[in-house]
Amino acid sequence: MAQIIDGKAVSAQIKDELKQKVAAMKAEGTQVTLAVIQVGNDPASSVYVGNKKKACEYIGIRSLAYELPEETSQEELLDLIAELNGRKDVNGILVQLPLPGHIDEDMVIGAIHPKKDVDGFHPQSVGALCIGQPGFVSCTPAGIIQLLKRSGIEITGKECVVIGRSNIVGKPMALLLLRENGTVTVAHSRTRDLKEVTKRADILVVAVGKPKMVTREYVKEGAVVIDVGIHRMEGKKLCGDVDYDSVAPVCSAITPVPGGVGPMTIAMLMNNCVESVALQAK
Ligand code: NAD
After folding, report:
1. Lowest CB count within 10 Å: 21, 34, 192, 248, which one?
2. In this predicted model, what pLDDT tens digit does every residue of 244-270 receive, in sequence order?
3. Is 119 among the residues known to form the active site?
4. Residue 75, SS3?
């Protein structure tokens, strides 16, 4: 029977640890502050922003909400980021993606000061991760490393296969597994014989964006399977990129959807906010 990796429980544990840290920081006169910018009112983005605010409240992080209209110009957004970059009382800056089409996302990400880049998307943060220097790490892959470690799953020396090479999940995931001494393969849409590649994995991370694509034929007996995907099916039920019912019987551990990787992303965002204070003090 596969171990079900409980992301809800692990994220709750991390949030409680952070709550204690933030209380201790407050007692010493430091208030951690996150600025969250949303442009437009895309309903999914509003849900994500709302969840981030709730997590801040729970942990004791002050959150500043900037809800800008859809027609906000790129210049206005960049001006706001420049102002927040300069404010000593703001530790983290998060711009909720996606942005409206008339705004260049790369330009906006690049405008956030790397020491306030709590999403870990700035090219300098990505470069720092690549060469093992301190900096922020993209929250979803950072959360997966925490899930593995806190579930007692060793990474060193393991064959790790990541399906997906996106900038926010696949690539940083591969770099983090490498940093943890895994032997890492990145598979993607042009990979030949995908099943042959994924069947080598002791740890298989699936971030492919296709509902239930990974079935038991992709998985070696006893592998650990991490499902990053989130899809809403008809009837509103959520599913992942992994066909859970077919894969769970053959693997040694698996993350469910919901309740696996999902809750870890916000927990790691909160962690990055708390860490930003020390990074800024350097
Ligand atoms: P993306 O679409 O940017 O990237 C998907 C990757 O999968 C691409 O690199 C592509 O090469 C690869 N791919 C596509 N089809 C393939 C195929 N048939 N075979 C092999 N590889 C294939 O997606 P993303 O942003 O990396 O997100 C992946 C999934 O994770 C999505 O379902 C997304 O909703 C989810 N997600 C969840 C969280 C979370 O907090 N849990 C965070 C980010 C993304």
Report:
1. 192
2. 999 999 999 999 999 999 999 999 999
3. yes
4. helix
